[in-house]
Structures are given as structure tokens and as C-alpha cells.
Amino acid sequence: MSSVKKGLGKVEVALRWDPSPMGAPEHDLDLVAAAYTEGAGYAEPEYVVHFDSRSPDGTINLNRDSRTGQGFGYDEVMTLEFDRLAESYTRVVVGVVIQQNEDRKTFADIENTGVRIAEGYTELATSDLAEAAGGTAATIAEFTRDPETGTWEFRSTIRGFDADPTSFAAQLGALS
Q1: Do the bridges between strand 47-49 and strand 29-37 make them parallel or antiparallel, or are there none, so unpaired?
Q2: What's the pLDDT tens digit per position in 65-115?
Q3: In angstroms, rounded to a whole number, what is the distance separating the alpha carbons of residues 133 and 112?
Q4: Residues 6+ apart with CB under 8 A from 38
Q5: What is the pTM of this model?
Q6: Is the Cα torsion angle 67, 72, 156, 134 positive or negative in sign?
Q7: Interval 31-56: pLDDT, tens
Q8: Cα–Cα distance between 66 and 174 in angstroms, integer?
């Protein structure tokens, strides 16, 4: 009997953090995703999804955006629909970046950070971003399409960067 490899369909990436202390500048963390086409490897992404944007075909959406971390549970949520993503895309990398104001902040400066990656009720990964504590940005997930079966696979990849939001978008797909 042969087995059929299903691969990933609709995945949710969620981010949480505690608000800054009263009177301090707000903590603003953002989920970011970059999509790469076949042959692009680790070069420039075809497009980047971040706050106030979505993928051109609507398969990657930032459904919830927070600028303060206030609220219950997860403050930012991104949905990735791999079962609808065009065949030309072979890799998607997701990261988190801290918007920097006057004071430089790292993940170590922000209380109760957490990431959850799930497909339906199946939790694929969780992290408190401790592996990237000294960073101002971090990759958190890499999704790749198997060239033979066409199915999408997940790899947890927590890697810290010292980058602002603009430069991080360019570094997001760097070989980890």
C-alpha cells in the first residue's frame, strides 16, 4: 500500500507580546513574509507581505496587526494558503521585526514574546524568541515546495538579525 503525502494547506502564524510599561514608547512588532519563485534561491523575493499589505493573489494575508501588543492572546496573525499558491513559488520565509523608534529594542527588551505556527488544530511550532534575544528581527519559519511532489513542507528556523524593517526584508531569505 502506498502513502500519499498531503503537505501543508492553510497555515496560521501568530505573534504575541506584552505592551510596554506605562509612559514608555510602545513596542511594535510586525510579522513579515517573503515569497520566492523557482530559480530565485536566496536572492530577492518576488514580493514581501507586511503590515498594510497582502500578496498579489491573496494567498498570504496579515489578518491582524497590532502596534502596541495590547489585547488578549496573539496580537498579530498571518495566514498563508499554500494549497492556493501558484506553482512558480517554491519558498516562503516568515519573520518578525521590531519597529524602532528613538530607543533601540531587542527581543530581550520585550516581555512575553511568543510565536505559534499551526495548520488547523495541529501546532507545527512555538517559540518565545529566546534564540533571537539580542536581535531586532528574526526569521521564524521557512516553507518549501517539494519539487517532485509539489507539496509544501515546514522548517522552524529561529535566527536573529540586527536589522531595521527595510533591510530585514532584503535579509529575510538569507541562507540560515
Answers
A1: antiparallel
A2: 665 556 667 888 999 999 999 999 999 999 999 987 777 899 999 999 999
A3: 12
A4: 88, 89, 90
A5: 0.90
A6: positive
A7: 999 999 987 666 788 889 988 788 98
A8: 26
